């Protein structure tokens, strides 16, 4: 890869990390056990453009930077791991593939059920000491809302906007 394309990739990743931080920290509904927002969108786009490793690293960095600059509680590295796994999942299932609603649904289902519902609930259990069964109802509602939103927005954002630019 030539230097110009490395620089271009670095600039795009930096811009998308900034966008993720803004969407997550300022354009989300936050409660102590739940966050509903659109921070997934820049990460999904990075997964499509650059693959699992870059999307995972970018989301982990975005999570860490966002937490350091705009803390919403104590930093917990488990959520950064979830962010990395989320970005990697978007990259594994969307990079160099046709971005269809079916593929977006499958990817959103994996991200929301494995990482957001299971792993994040476990991190919250560790942090709060509350039983999983206490946390699950609100988290199930979040997943039920997030899957269709991600399924709709990922192909829409890529196919109607970014695909033409990139």
CATH topology: Arp2/3 complex 21 kDa subunit ARPC3
Biggest sheet, spatial arrangement of strands:
1-2
The geometry reads as globular
The secondary structure category is mainly alpha
> In the CATH hierarchy, what is the architecture at level 2?
Orthogonal Bundle
Number of helices: 6
Largest sheet: 2 strands, antiparallel
For the termini, the CA-CA separation is 17 Å
Helix fraction bin: over 70%
Total domain count: 1
Poorly predicted ranges (pLDDT <50, ≥5 residues)? none
Structure summary, number of beta strands = 2
- Rounded Rg: 15 Å
Average pLDDT works out at: 92
* Binned strand content: under 5%
Text of the CATH class: Mainly Alpha
Q: List the secondary-structure elements in sequence, H or E.
A: HEEHHHHH
Protein name: Folate family ECF transporter S component
Transmembrane segments: 6-26, 38-62, 74-94, 106-126, 132-158
Keywords: Membrane, Transmembrane, Transmembrane helix
GO molecular function: transmembrane transporter activity
